[in-house]
Amino acid sequence: MRFGIEFVPNLSTLDIAYYSRIAEDLNFDNIWVTDHYNNRNVYVTLTHVALYTNKITIGAGVTNPYHINPAVIASSIATIDEISGGRTVLGIGAGDRTTLADLGIERKNNLAAVRESVSIIRQLWAGKAVQHEGTAFNMSNAKLGFKIANILPIYLAAQGPNMTELAAEIAEGVLINGSHPQDYVFAEKMLKKGSAKSERCIMPPTFDVGAYTVFSIDKDREKAVKAAKVPVAYIVAGSIQEVLDRHNIDKAVSDKIGEELRKGNINEAKSLVNDEMMDLCAVIGDVDECIEKIEALQGAGVSQLIVGTPIGPDILKAIKTIGKSIIPVFKKEG
Amino acid sequence: MVLKFGIEFVPSEKTLDVAYYSKLAENVEFNNIWITDHFTNRSVFASLTQVALYTHKITIGTGVTNYYHINPCVIASAIATIAEISGGRTILGLGAGDKVTLGNLGIDRIKPLAAMKESIEIIRKLLNGETVNYNGEVFNIPHAQLGFKIKHKAPIYMAAQGPEMTKLSAQIADGVLINASHPHDYEEAKKNLEIGFQERNLPKRKFDIAAYTSFSVHEKPDKAINAAKIVVAFIVAGSIPLILERHSIPLEEAKNIEASLSKNKFGDAINMVTPGMLDAFCIAGTPEDCISKIEELQKTGVTQLVCGSPLGPSIPDAIKLMGKTILPAFRAKW
To answer: How many whole angstroms separate alpha carbon B83 and alpha carbon A70?
Structure first.
């Protein structure tokens, strides 16, 4: 099992670089930095992280081809790879619907946009002059002017069945926003369908199934739960019908939570999050409880466990606890 | 008024090299570093990050980015991130982008003037911490707000070539970047700037008129001139008839150069570059030659001299030579 960690640049890049350094020292395998226009810039953050670390894999987790042109994504990720000495991966998805809507961006043809972006980005990395006539993008003679050392692994962020299928068809990994084994039992079916289309092997290490979890660890369970409430509220509000159905969460409640979050009524949103939602949508607890849940995810086919926001009530303490008490348990087995 | 000195770096060079040159430029007391932004090169924001971390007092900025390949809201947060990392040493240089490069990406430069005006308004609001609800001709942004505190608001400079863009810069920007190397071009620009200023209540001395020149210096004039020839060939090929006429360059000569360049016959193109073209489109020669040309530009009202590509046969040698000879010549007077 590989361990990833998500950092959201609502923190300063210096803080993230510092946490990244600690995560590296504690044998995490992968750092993922999120990309939303309202936070600090993902490429600036990744540059800072690249310069402060020396062996950990780093990546955008995830960017999207709607607010930045895919050709700019290609050269930006290639730049980070050069700075980091070949430690970079690209996580790409269709973006967050609400955030992009705030910018007036409609996510048209999101499957096509992601598929075409991956193709364009790979061709650019290969040094080709891209001729692309698609439904989302039209490019003629687009070519990078500098040499790329590596064709980098691309991970797709997937929630729905089609995007999950697409990940297995065209990508080197998938990032699934799910914290419950059920999510991965379901995903596996879609991944198999996708890999059958392209006849690609989706077993590790060829393909990485990343579980992008809401994670909160603390000796005091109450504290861990409290820290995870808002992230779980966002997950429930942002989940598509299929995911809600799978977990028996009422769509009306999910909508209500979304409405409260939009109005900025954080406490009302939190009060609508029940224990069941917490259990379904997050990995929460003390060391033993987290280990148990990670084992269950591993059993369901997860090959990279990404500890996502909030990580714990105290980020630094949580990173150290995970690194000292959880990662060694799984690395030993491997 | 004291003439400021800026220097342009193109990230066709590695970010580490750009950071090294930046450090040299800071040491010899340049005031400003400008990094270009094209998808074909390394990421401007990754480059600026490394430059910010390697320097401590020089002002750094995009020179220039555009709101077509990156959403203006992403530009706002990216420049705010650079401002945070650099401790407030940041300028945002904004332009309508390069027609050919954006054309390769299938991007139409829709209504460049309106897009510029709207982008600046949107970015300023975001940097002020305001919620943007913007309904423009080009941008429709229903509800955008940055999620982190902005301590340092970057001044915004506009890249301008045509008369309308130049007027607009005097109306709304904190400075203008004009791609030209000859006093005639600045006499023209000045007329348009004056028109723009009439509609604005800003002390003129606060507005920075930056001459973004093609620059090449070496103690042996031939070496300096030879290094500049290819850059001048591209400028001649890309210039509109109005500009060629202003400098008495026959249209046919320009067309011949364009034809050679489009066939990648760079040697032929270089051979067709005349002394008249060199005089019109670059500052090239010994330090003394450069000083007298800069003095002419200063007389037309230029307040910042930006040394742009190629700088000289060797970039680090050119920076050191400028620091020893050219910059002190202008400092001494004040």
So the answer is: 25
| Chain A neighbors of B130, CB-CB under 8 A | none
Contacts of B106 in chain A (CB under 8 A): 137-140
Q: Tokens in use for A310? A: 């909030």
The string of pLDDT tens digits covering residues B55-93 is 999 999 999 999 999 999 999 999 999 999 999 999 999
Q: Residue A221 contacts by C-beta under 8 Å, 6 or more apart in sequence?
A: A284, A285, A286, A289
**Three-state SS for A13?**
helix
Structure tokens at B74: 């992403």
Query: Does the beta carbon of A105 lie under 8 angstroms from any beta carbon of chain B?
Result: yes
Q: Judge whether B7 and B312 are in contact, CB under 8 Å.
A: no
Q: Would you give the distance in Å from CA A14 to the centre of its chain?
A: 21
Q: Are A76 and B43 in contact (CB under 8 A)?
A: yes
Q: How far apart are CA A7 and CA A316, in angstroms?
A: 12
The answer to whether residue A148 neighbours chain B at the CB level (below 8 Å) is: no
Distance from CA of B210 to the nearest CA of A (A): 26
Phi and psi torsions of A78, nearest 5°: -65, -35
Of B126, B245, A103, B158, the closest CA to residue B253 belongs to B245
Residue B56 has a CB neighbour count (10 Å cut-off) of 11
- For residue A72, give the chain B residue with the closest CA: B39
Q: Does B85 touch chain A (CB under 8 A)?
A: yes
- Report residue A31 as tokens: 């750092």
- B107 min Cα distance to partner chain A (Å): 8
**CB-based contact (8 Å) between A7 and chain B?**
no
Residue B263 confidence (pLDDT)? 87
- If we measure between CA atoms, which residue out of A212, A220, A113, A213 comes closest to residue A162? A113
Q: Give me the percent of chain B exceeding a pLDDT of 90.
A: 91
Residues 186-225 of A with CB under 8 A from B: none
DSSP secondary structure letter of residue B215: E
pLDDT tens, position by position, A88-135: 999 999 998 888 999 999 998 999 999 999 999 999 999 999 999 999
Q: E strands of B124-229, at which residues? A: 132-135, 140-144, 156-160, 175-178, 208-217
Could A76 and B78 be called an inter-chain contact, meaning their C-beta atoms sit closer than 8 Å? no
Interchain contact, A40 vs B77, CB within 8 Å: yes
Tell whether B304 is within 8 A of chain A (Cβ): no
Mean pLDDT value across chain A? 95
Most A CBs within 10 A among B47, B49, B131, B139, hence the mutation to make, goes to B49
